[in-house]
Amino acid sequence: MDLKWEFTSLMHHEMTHVFQWNGEVKTPAPLVEGIADYTVLKANYFPLGFTKPGSWDRWDEGYVHTALFLQYCDELVLDFVAKLNKMMRKTYDVSFFQNLTGKPVEELWKDYKAKYVNKAFEGIQG
C-alpha cells in the first residue's frame, strides 16, 4: 500500500466537499459523494480495477458508481460536472441532468448501461 498515494486520493475527495455546492442540503448524499469521487477519478488518484463501469443497478448509488456515470455525462457535455455543481448552489432537482444534456437522467442511465454492455460483448467477440 502506498500511503502517500492513498492520502492524496482521500484529500482530493474531501477537499471537493469544501468547494462543492449541495443545494443547501437538498442534493442527495450519493450524488454529493459521487461528485467528490469524480474529482479523484479526474485527478488520476482512483484505484484501477476497483469497479467496472456500468456494473451496478442505479446511477445514484454514490461514490465510484456515481463518479463513473458522471464521467460519462462529462463526455456528452463539456464540463458537465462543473455546470451541475453550479446549478446546485441553492437547490437541487434531478431535472438538472435534462437541462444540461437534453435527456432525463433515466435515459442517460440506460444509454450509459448500454455502452458498457456493448463493450463487454465486444470483448467476448474480439
TrEMBL record:
Top-level taxon: Eukaryota
PANTHER family, A to Z: PLANT BASIC SECRETORY PROTEIN (BSP) FAMILY PROTEIN (PTHR33321:SF15), PTHR33321
Protein name (Swiss-Prot/TrEMBL): Plant basic secretory protein (BSP) family protein
Organism of derivation: Helianthus annuus (Common sunflower)
